[in-house]
Structure prediction request, 185 residues.
Amino acid sequence: MAGDASAAGVENAPAGPATVAVWDPVVRLFHWTVVAGCLLNLFVLEDRPHEVVGYIVAAALTIRVVWGFIGTRYARFADFVPGPRRLTAYLAALVRGREPRTLGHNPAGAVMMLLLMGLLAAVSLTGWMMSLDAFWGEDWLEELHEGIANAILVLALLHAGAALFESWRHRENLVWSMVTGRKRA
Prediction:
């Protein structure tokens, strides 16, 4: 058998770092659908195309919430939603520069994800409400919808900055792991 590997040149292949599957296709598709949808709706689209993309993001959110209960290990809420003690301990370690590396969401990232998912649900709901006769032309609803969208933008920027910081701190490309689904073991 060893001769077969040698003949194929396998033994001469450089050994790279071992990786493990973390982000499954549903999680990655949800993530990038939301990124694209939010960017399009915040900066490019108006009127009917804006609504269609909003419904696509709302559908992706619905699928992700269901997947949070029935999906793969790192996709499940039970795997990453922290309690107050775990979150406090993680934040204290983060402030000291000694936060542990995690394969899935770290406790702060989990809270950010839950906040963003809640805001996505709220922006989807207010967007849908604006299409109803009962709320047609209501300025307060449009202002609320825009305010929630702006909060999503601010938190998404904070999320991206934190991912870059964590990538630097733990010497691994977290953005790329959301593309490939794999992280260093």
About this structure: The first strand starts at residue 19 and ends at 21. Helices lie at 2-7, 25-43, 47-70, 77-80, 84-95, 107-130, 139-170, 174-180. The radius of gyration is 20 Å. The CA atoms of residues 126 and 144 lie 8 Å apart.
